[in-house]
Amino acid sequence: MQQQHSRHIGPIALMLTGLGSIIGSGWLFGAAHAAQIAGPAAIVAWIVGMVIILSIALSYAELGAMFPESGGMVRYARYSHGSLLGFIAAWANWIAIVSVIPIEAEASVQYMSTWPYPWAQNLYHNGELSTVGLSFAAVLVIAYFLLNYWGVKLFAKANSAITIFKVIVPAVTVGALIYSGFHSENLNNPAMGGFAPFGWASVMTAVATSGIVFSFNGFQSPINLAGEARNPGKSVPFGVVGSILLAAVIYVALQVAFLGALSPSELAHGWKGLDFSSPFAQLAMALGLNWLMMTLYFDAFVSPSGTGATYMASTSRMIYGMQRNGTMPEIFGRIHPL
Fold first, then answer.
1. How far apart are CA 196 and CA 144, in angstroms?
2. What are the DSSP calls for 159-196, one per residue?
3. Greatest alpha-carbon span in the chain
4. Claim: this prediction has a pTM higher than 0.85
5. DSSP secondary structure, 43-104, as one string
6. If exposure means fewest CB atoms within 10 Å of the residue's CB, which of 58, 175, 265, 319 is most exposed?
């Protein structure tokens, strides 16, 4: 007989799990990439991206409420289309999600290499991690594992704390950039082509190619953790929809703040001429906000690690779900009594 998961995750913690998966390091670059493609109309692109993902997520939210199972994302295709398609869909989904974990660890170490310390600068050379950097990334992956291994309560508390920090930093960034000097004329400058200088088709291009859609993709985590959610009929939809809506507010605010913080010199070559390797950090430096720049560099390490830990939790539940599908050995369906 299968042991059942204890239901320790409340609706707020579940929503923060989704928000922690959604908000990684992408927000540090997405606003600049979208502005290059669509100009000020990039604001609309984030809203369109949110609507697209929300239309998909609502279906999964309903399934998660009806069938609150650990690793639900690998179970539903089997229910609807049978064992063969369920097997293919489950493995494809799991491989896509599990590959994010080492990527986020590598991203954390890469961002750490920008810290103004000699030891940090030895972590990344010539476009790839050094031996020391790879070792550090491996330690981070082990840390993600241990955070999950020591219990779902610890994971939920740690994830909530990290996610709150990941939300506070963008909020502070928005406030600091707007307070330091907001050029409202950038949002609809006739000399720059107005609000949509490249036409409305560029909005859809930005949605697809600037990382906007992928910036919302972490909504799957609350569904995979539904088996451990209290009152899943209400908490799963709340977690999925709430995390997407909150992320959309943060992304739109960041886009507006980025557009308004650009000086005339930075727009001298038009929207397509924007050239930033670390957009918000460079804007903070240009505005003399050194404290914000250092905060952003630290957040660029914390955000990927928080996402990596959340995806570790999600993929482990997916393995459990695949065992219940009958496509993994029985040992992967055993649950520790604690």
1. 43
2. HHHHHHHHHHHHHHHHHHHHHH---GGGGG-GGGTSSS
3. 70
4. no
5. HHHHHHHHHHHHHHHHHHHHHHHHS--TTGGGTHHHHHH-HHHHHHHHHHHHHHHHTHHHHH
6. 265
